[in-house]
């Protein structure tokens, strides 16, 4: 009996660790017991706590229209609790049982976070009520006294932990300390503050703060370099329970509470936590076009459903691809108050051995050898930038930092990437942490086409130095347009500065293979290029190959076109079109050849981004030299139409209709529609068994918008035969 008693007792105690007196404090959710009466010794019989100053009530001024949330730009959060930003004063009012007498009454506030609060770790913060507030340091002063009440202005430190604090008011008596009891209503969330100059995430432009912190919808640019497509994404960082879900992410990652005031640490931990590899993080990635037991990445319209599902199930949500990881990461950063934006890099290199070159191996006929070729070019890749100072790096490398939650390669043993300074990447200073070489390669690699001769020597047929990282974009500030930021990442192609940055990167240890040990003598007197006709999904289109013979010689070119259906990551699923022909090239002239692609050739195997990749190689028979070029192309996908009826007033019912016409020559089966709009309606889903060809589907939804102002409705349609179908509508919700 006594033994079992003992083991039970043992279990209750946290495991001790020889190196620290207290267990690690890495959960914002756990609490400790705080005594309401902390006696200094024996309490005399006549002691009655009611004789001393005692707290009757605490007013937090936490309504969206009240002073705190207004001044701290937190009025949009759907949370009944007080939410403030660090390094900026906020107000509370305390009602006592009698008037407060500063001469004799001694009171202080206590803010606590986690289960093992300690003053030196910033997890226990006692604040004496004093006369002056120092900017950016903890303090409290009385600004108004009336009857039994005092109003306090409280300043938090500009470097304090970001999270949910518990508040106690303590009063000193000769026999002990009297405290208020645990009261959930006085819990206070403290966030990063881009409006405060002492905060590491300070951003000095109001328009940018409104976009990168307060905007709850954004745009994802996808498609490819020759055919840029865009879709809206609902970040929803202010929606109910999202703030708690974001704090839960840091608990799940077991990030020490004392490190949660540092945006560098938070970003690094979150970039690992957003994907499910190695830590059971938020989203499971899937790039194989089979999404059984989960939601296809293209069907999501925003981050809210994903974060809430993870918060409740504690299990990875299926499935995501790069823009989903980036969308959720953006929500997390903006929700905590770190300025963030979603970036798209067109023709993004995934360089497996980080040697700044993507090796495409050709066989004798000039076809790509898929077994040997390991590197790939993503049509586009999305990541995030977060804004912060970098006190851990030399001066000049603060500002935008690349963070990427998509699992591509490991960093220090985990799938994560960043924060890497954009400025350091531009100048080739890839020695600065974290993961700058990988990001540098994503935007700067060369494509090398090589062919192995019969005797085993490698012949380089072509070096393409401009294909990778051709265009890097993000949504413009204050609008839905595209803003090009390529020059934030790299100097003008071919400029002196660009060479210098490359030499710097190589000096800092990026492997750049030299091409001296291989033969490279390209055919310079013939140019070859090809164009793909823009086409709607389900129709035929043509590819036009043009040669320009600049020499005085007569040439014949054995030309081979290979059409492949690819994932947007550039990985081939299968070759659906092979076509060879012989081209006669007259001296000093141009000639064009058309190849027709029929819809019946590609429709059965099409993947969700409707992406093709064409390789064209031509061997000049007279010289034996090979010309090679490649391009990705995306089909036009039909869109959803969204309409509204009646007046749109906050608090009144309105009606939204989504329409779609099936353009394919087949019936669509098991179709899922999603519709959401932050502040207007929570995500709604509807399943349709079938949509016959050419027929139109209509779905009507009733909703009650919560917030006035300009809002966005976003819809998606998804089924096995057709994905990436989107629609959106801006709606102006009137004040009641």
Automatic annotation (TrEMBL):
- Classification lineage: Eukaryota, Metazoa, Chordata, Craniata, Vertebrata
Q: Which organism is it from?
A: Thalassarche chlororhynchos (Atlantic yellow-nosed albatross)
EC? 2.3.2.13
Q: Which enzyme class, named as a word? A: transferase
Question: Which domain of life does the protein's organism represent?
Answer: Eukaryota
> What name does UniProt use for this protein?
Coagulation factor XIII A chain
State where it is primarily located.
Answer: cytoplasm
Cofactor(s) annotated in UniProt: Ca(2+)
Gene3D superfamilies named among the record's database cross-references: Immunoglobulins (2.60.40.10), Transglutaminase-like (3.90.260.10)
């Amino acid at each position: 009996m006594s033994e079992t008693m003992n083991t039970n007792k043992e279990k209750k105690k946290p495991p001790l660790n020889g190196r620290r007196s207290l267990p690690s404090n890495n959960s914002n959710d756990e609490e400790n017991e705080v005594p309401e009466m902390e006696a200094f010794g024996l309490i005399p019989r006549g002691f009655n706590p009611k004789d001393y100053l005692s707290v009757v009530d605490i007013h937090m001024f936490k309504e969206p229209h009240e002073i705190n949330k207004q001044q701290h730009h937190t009025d949009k959060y759907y949370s009944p609790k007080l939410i403030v930003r660090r390094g900026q004063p906020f107000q509370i009012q305390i009602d006592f049982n009698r008037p407060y007498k500063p001469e004799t009454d001694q009171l202080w506030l206590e803010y606590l976070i986690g289960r093992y609060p300690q003053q030196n770790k910033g997890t226990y913060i006692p604040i004496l009520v004093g006369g002056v507030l120092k900017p950016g340091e903890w303090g409290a002063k009385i600004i108004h006294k009336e009857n039994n009440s005092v109003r306090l202005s409280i300043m938090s430190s500009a470097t304090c932990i970001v999270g949910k604090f518990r508040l106690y008011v303590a009063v000193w008596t000769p026999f002990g300390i009297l405290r208020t009891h645990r009261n959930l209503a006085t819990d206070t969330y403290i966030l990063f503050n881009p409006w405060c100059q002492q905060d590491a995430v300070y951003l000095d432009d109001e328009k940018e703060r409104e976009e990168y912190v307060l905007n709850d919808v954004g745009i994802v640019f996808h498609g490819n370099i020759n055919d840029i497509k865009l879709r809206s994404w609902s970040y929803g960082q202010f929606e109910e329970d999202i703030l708690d879900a974001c704090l839960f992410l840091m608990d799940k990652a077991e990030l020490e509470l004392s490190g949660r005031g540092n945006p560098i640490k938070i970003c690094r931990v979150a970039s690992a936590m957003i994907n499910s590899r190695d830590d059971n993080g938020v989203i499971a990635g899937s790039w194989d076009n089979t999404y059984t037991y989960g939601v296809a990445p293209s069907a999501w319209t925003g981050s809210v459903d994903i974060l809430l599902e993870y918060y409740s199930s504690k299990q990875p949500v299926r499935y995501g691809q790069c823009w989903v990881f980036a969308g959720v990461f953006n929500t997390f950063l903006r929700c905590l108050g770190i300025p963030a934006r979603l970036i798209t890099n067109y023709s993004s290199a995934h360089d497996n051995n980080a040697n700044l070159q993507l090796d495409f191996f050709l066989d004798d006929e000039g076809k790509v050898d898929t077994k040997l070729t390991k590197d790939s070019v993503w049509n586009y890749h999305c990541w995030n930038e977060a804004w912060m100072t970098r006190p851990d790096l030399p001066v000049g490398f603060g500002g935008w930092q690349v963070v990427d939650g998509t699992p591509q390669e490991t960093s220090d043993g985990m799938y994560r990437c960043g924060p890497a300074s954009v400025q350091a990447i531009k100048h080739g200073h890839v020695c600065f942490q974290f993961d700058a070489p990988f990001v540098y390669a994503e935007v700067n690699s060369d494509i090398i086409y090589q062919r192995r001769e019969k005797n085993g020597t490698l012949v380089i047929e072509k070096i393409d130095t401009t294909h990778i990282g051709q265009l890097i974009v993000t949504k413009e500030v204050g609008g839905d347009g595209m803003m090009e930021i390529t020059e934030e990442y790299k100097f003008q192609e071919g400029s002196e500065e660009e060479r210098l940055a490359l030499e710097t990167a190589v000096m800092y240890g990026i492997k750049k293979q030299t091409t001296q040990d291989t033969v490279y003598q390209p055919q310079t007197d013939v140019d070859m290029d090809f164009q793909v006709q823009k086409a709607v999904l389900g129709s035929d289109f043509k590819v036009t190959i043009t040669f320009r013979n600049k020499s005085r010689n007569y040439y014949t070119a054995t030309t081979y076109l290979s059409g492949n259906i690819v994932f947007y990551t550039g990985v081939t699923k299968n070759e659906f079109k092979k076509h060879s022909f012989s081209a006669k090239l007259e001296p000093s002239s141009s000639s064009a050849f058309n190849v027709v692609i029929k819809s019946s050739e590609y429709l059965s195997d099409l993947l969700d981004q409707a992406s093709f990749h064409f390789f064209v190689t031509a061997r000049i028979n007279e010289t034996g030299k090979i010309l090679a070029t490649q391009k990705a192309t995306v089909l036009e996908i039909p869109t959803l139409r969204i309409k509204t009826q009646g007046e749109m007033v906050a608090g009144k019912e309105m009606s939204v209709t989504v329409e779609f016409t099936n353009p394919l020559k087949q019936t669509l089966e098991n179709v899922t529609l999603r519709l959401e709009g932050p502040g207007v309606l929570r995500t709604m889903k509807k399943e349709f068994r079938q949509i016959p060809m050419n027929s139109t589907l209509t779905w009507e939804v009733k909703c009650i918008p919560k917030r006035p102002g300009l809002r966005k409705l976003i819809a998606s349609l998804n089924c096995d035969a057709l994905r990436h179908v989107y629609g959106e509508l801006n709606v102006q919700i009137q004040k009641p």
